[in-house]
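--- STAGE predict ---
source: upstream dedup step, 1 unique chain passed
mode: sequence only
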Amino acid sequence: MVDVKEKFDFAPKSSRQAIKDWPATERPREKLLQLGPEGLSDGELLAVLLRIGKSGQSAEDMGRQLLAQFNGITGIDRAHIEELLAVPGMGIAKTAQLKAAIEIGKRARMQNAQPKGFDHAADVTAYIRPRFEGKRQECFLTILLDGQNRLLAERVIAEGIPTQATVYVRRVMEEALRVSASAFIVAHNHPSGHPAPSPADDQTTQDLKQAADLLNLVFQDHIIIGSGNSYYSYAENDKL
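--- STAGE serialize ---
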């Protein structure tokens, strides 16, 4: 079996040079300027963000250690702040920089994926999926739309704790009325990765439909986000 430290070569070495002493062509920051960010490895990109390492360990070594310890960038995204802070050499500044950079990437993807209309579940799912990446617990949000099916607002309704369906319904309706929405979509993730709806999901959907009809709002879809590209749409399955 290959030793993880040997594979990623991040074991501290007193003789290891600091990045500033490396040849310019090997320094992650200079390589990024020359080749573009796509020309750097994951460890090198993390080194650019971390800027400095710790005694006996360069920023790139630290980046490789994080990748190994948390199983890649996705794992770093999923890691709690306290878990990152517990890594030797990772202080508040480095942890905040990593989390901020990952969040910027998610928001950029959402802007690029925002559909002109919100009529198709596949397009809506591609747009909102970054919101759920890295979530260890269930997150329930609503997308609020105007009469032309254009985005008015997005609101997180609940996150992290089980919530009664009646609470979801009340909060969704409150947010819809607050921005004078004509229609809405709700979405939540299944941390298990399996998007098949549960009986509780079915009940929440029925309750939302009844409340929407009473308030003359169009309930367009309830989407459940699974792992990879998987999702479940109540509208696509004719269950609204």
